[in-house]
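hiii, so i know i said id send this last week but things got crazy w the move. better late than never?? heres the sequnce for the chain we talked about at the cafe, plus the structure i predicted for it. fair warning i was half asleep when i ran it
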Amino acid sequence: MTDLLSQLTFTSGHSMKNRFMLAPLTNCQSHVDGTLSDDEYTWLTKRAEGGFGLTMTCAAHVQAIGQGFPGQLGIWDDKHIAGLTRLAGGIKAHNSVALVQLHHAGMRSSLVKELLDGAPVCPSDNERSGARGLTLAETQQLIEDFVRAAERAQAAGFDGVELHGAHGYILCQYFSAAINARDDAFGGDTQGRYRILFEIIDGVRTRCGADFVLGVRLSPERFGMQLGEVLGVAERLLTDDRVDFLDMSLWDCFKQPEDEAFKGKSLMEHFAALKRGNTRLGAAGALETPADAEKLMAAGYDYAMLGRAAMWNHDFPKLYADNRTFTPAALPVSRAYLNAEGISDTFVDYIKGNWPQYVAE
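okay and structure toks below
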């Protein structure tokens, strides 16, 4: 088993001081125009201070129309660079690799359509969400805007970016045969539906350079994803060495797949069994304790992504370094406890609204 406290070096040359990566978490704390707030700065820099080897922002939308939730961090305009520069500096001051997650909600922008200037967009017209399909020119512009957002992150001093291709957001919508009904180069078979991802990857590599960290997040189920297809794309990403890391968002690392054809092994085991090149593999999903993270590493992963566990214990990596069997905070926790962990009342309200069992009020 790889030691969680050992250094991890990416092909870009950047190194994590340990194998703990902060998962990108929605927190609704940014300003209405997408600029960074003091609350979001505190939430993220406190995790860097707590010892995370890599600290990643929440999903930052690359087009104004791609907003997916209130108070979302933006990276679609140069006006966001000043706040992002402050944030990158605050994270890196604690020897943590600093990344922005690049995102576009696509048809899932319908959840906040009152905040949008126009109808949500999607690879194809979608009656249920009210989203309209993007033209070929608009798809090409979307690719450009992902790449341009990566350039903004680099200009702000971030070490790299992650492309959010999971959870039913716009890249995932292109991947899904159940959602993507296009008949051009960005639809049809697996190669066509995933073309957008690889064109963004190539664009970021060309314009941001080989020393810029580039990762991809995928999820294997829900939103029309087919596990067999995702396994194939994941293996391509792991072996062609165009990206530094693959982040598998598994919802629960230890669960059995929903697809009957893949029963008998956990999702974690299926992805661990793929062929590997120099691309690093990590996962998120129900990693709540030191033992959970160690199980992931024992299965052959390169790093562990902590989300909710990092909410309750901002210094999870430091606590682990002091005691590898430490017990994380017992849930539920009070609002005051979360405030002390660097989580504002706005973020607490978001947590309480989605997971009321976690907040003792």
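btw Residues 92 and 98 are 6 Å apart (CA to CA). thought thatd interest u
miss u guys!!
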